[in-house]
Design a protein that fits this description.
Layout (H helix, E strand, L loop, with lengths): L6 E4 L5 H10 L1 E3 L9 H10 L2 E3 L8 H5 L7 E3 L10 H6 L3 E3 L6 H14 L4 H9 L20 E5 L3 H12 L3 E5 L6 H7 L1 E3 L3 H7 L2 E4 L13 H4 L7 E4 L8 H9 L5 E4 L10 H4 L4 E3 L8 H19 L14
Parallel strand pairs: 1-2, 1-3, 3-4, 4-5, 6-7, 6-9, 7-8, 9-10, 10-11, 11-12
Helix pairs in contact: 1-13, 5-7
Bound molecules: (2R)-2,3-dihydroxypropanoic acid.
């Protein structure tokens, strides 16, 4: 990939400074109207590009990878999650995959905390009342929610984002519990004042609020299925800012409607933007359009990471954010 300028194809609009820099460095093709690439467009891009810069929503599976041109050597994903890319097949075809971890940790943890506060304190209902002009003034019994301080927060998935949530939660007086495949080092557990549960089932039965911070992998798909959701207290809340596939959305919807769970704050959905319509009408649910990492600062830093990954790879080095199938 030396000599001529690298052909880089970007599948979605990126922040303007990122696109400008990509244009300075590479022979770049941008997506000026930000439409979602069809499979045909993705295949065509993979047949032409030296480097593809896809993002969440671009499903790059075995069949598409089979159509990649021999020149495609790097898929530099714009985003931390890489569950939409078949990394194993890419590697077997000598295509390296990179992502943008770390730079969206704090922003996503902030959004998780916002949902942890917003749902038990009924911010959605309060805001709706104001926007409809229906507020009759203060009343001692109106819109009573639940106190956050002193409650048990369960964090499912204690990676970077889970730990950033734990740090914030402590400041709000929440007791932090977590379930993770691997137990944290004792020092980290102590610093976060976090209690590890080897058994997810046992933790679920005891928490007041559950924050889902686990990636979507074959082993986390529907980890929160109907059986496990039923272990939770009817007074418990669920917040999900990681991946919708971790939760059985239909089971969750049924339980929220039946009052078997107190509420949910969701930023992600099992089928992308095709959301269970029954979720929408519920008072005890706050729905966001996958905006956990949507800050100007974070999105620029994600772009910077993409560029560093491409440059490092082009210079013949291992890019800093290469992902491996073993990370799943
Ligand atoms: C990612 O980068 O994978 C996030 O889900 C986008 O917020």
């Amino acid at each position: 990939m030396s000599g001529k300028r690298l052909k880089v194809i970007v599948t979605r609009r990126l922040p303007e400074p990122v696109e400008t820099r990509l244009g300075e460095l590479f022979d770049v093709t941008l997506n000026s109207d930000d439409h979602r690439f069809s499979r045909g467009e993705l295949a065509e891009a993979m047949a032409r590009a030296d480097v593809l810069v896809p993002t969440l929503g671009d499903a790059i599976d075995q069949r598409l990878l089979a159509q990649a041109g021999p020149q495609l050597r790097l898929i530099a994903n714009y985003g931390a999650g890489f569950d939409h890319i078949d990394v194993q097949t890419a590697l077997s075809r000598n295509i390296i995959v990179t992502n943008t971890p770390g730079v969206l940790t704090e922003d996503t943890a902030d959004m998780t905390m916002a949902l942890i506060l917003a749902v038990p304190r009924r911010l959605r209902e309060g805001n709706l009342l104001m926007q409809k002009g229906e507020w009759q003034g203060w009343s001692p019994t109106a819109l009573m929610g639940h106190r956050i301080g002193g409650k048990r927060l369960g964090i499912l998935g204690m990676g970077r984002i889970g730990q950033a949530v734990a740090r914030r939660a402590a400041a709000f007086g929440l007791q932090v519990h977590y379930h993770n495949r691997r137990r944290l080092h004792a020092d980290t557990e102590e610093r976060l004042a976090a209690t590890w549960w080897e058994s997810l089932d046992q933790m679920l039965a005891r928490v007041d609020i559950l924050s889902v911070n686990a990636p979507h992998t074959p082993s986390t798909f529907h980890l929160l299925n109907a059986r496990r959701l039923k272990l939770m207290k009817p007074s418990a809340y669920i917040v999900n800012t990681s991946r919708g596939e971790v939760v059985d959305e239909n089971a969750l919807t049924r339980m929220l409607r039946a009052g078997e769970l107190a509420g949910a704050g969701l930023d992600v959905y099992e089928h992308g933007n095709d959301i269970n319509p029954r979720l929408r009408g519920l008072d005890n649910v706050l729905l966001l359009p996958h905006m956990g990492s949507a800050t100007q600062e974070g999105r620029l830093e994600m772009g910077e990471k993409v560029i560093i990954n491409i440059k490092t790879h082009a210079d013949g080095h291992r890019p800093p954010d290469q992902v491996l199938p073993s990370m799943l």
